Amino acid sequence: MHELALKDAESRLAELVAEAANGEQVVITRDDGTAFQIVPMLESGPRPKYGSARGLVEMADDFDAPLEDFKAYEP
Q: Taking burial as the number of CB atoms within 10 A of a residue's CB, which of 19, 48, 49, 66 is the most buried?
């Protein structure tokens, strides 16, 4: 774990970010005792594009037909 004061971290930010990216725990403390940790954010995977599933989904012709199990509940 690498812990240092905010004043020291100001001039070494790029180095501290690189350390955090390599998995090292980096904690920065202010004069009032409040501590902050530099944490790498998880990479999000590629998002699907609108319409990319076209042609992959098929719907039965009777998709919206009444179900036999519910005949007793129909008016």
A: 19
The model's pLDDT over 40-74, given as tens digits with 9 standing for 90+, comes to 887 777 888 899 888 998 999 999 988 889 888 88
Q: Phi then psi for 34, rounded to 5 degrees?
A: -70, 135
Q: Which residues pair with 26 in a beta bridge?
A: 2, 38
Domain residue extents for the chain: 1-35
pLDDT digits over 20-44, tens only?
Answer: 989 899 999 999 999 999 998 877 7
pTM of the model: 0.54
Rounded CA-CA distance 38/52 in Å is 37
- C-alpha 60/C-alpha 21 separation (Å) is 50
